[in-house]
User: Fold this.
Amino acid sequence: MGSDASGLAEFLAQAGQTVGVDVLANRLEGLHRSSSGVALIAVEWGPPTGVVVVNWMQTLSDDLPVAQISLLLVSPDERRRGVGRLLLKAASQATRTAGCGSMLLAAPLLADASVAAFCAATGFEAHGAVYARALRKKV
Assistant:
């Protein structure tokens, strides 16, 4: 996992998400140790071309655990080549193996049309809205 951190940190930085290599390595290791999530990285002859992070949890309203994608990112140069679909397929297999019954993908409802088209083409349907709140004060 730690060996993936350097390339993944660079990949994320190119997408505007700066995370230190050591911090990212610790997060990947924590996710790997947990039994409630997975990070899958697409690599084709060099640096990462895509990543998906999915976590699952039991809810009171669902019989089976629910998976939630917290990150799905594909390099702009690799889009429309099937990388995103392959990442979703691998994430779906991992979550089915974990016993999940459904998967959520949080994307802005007003995102550009390509996001909505990708979601629809991969079987996702619009389902409510998401609100977030910080639990600690920012210093």
Remarks:
- The radius of gyration is 15 Å.
- The chain is about 35% helix and 20% strand.
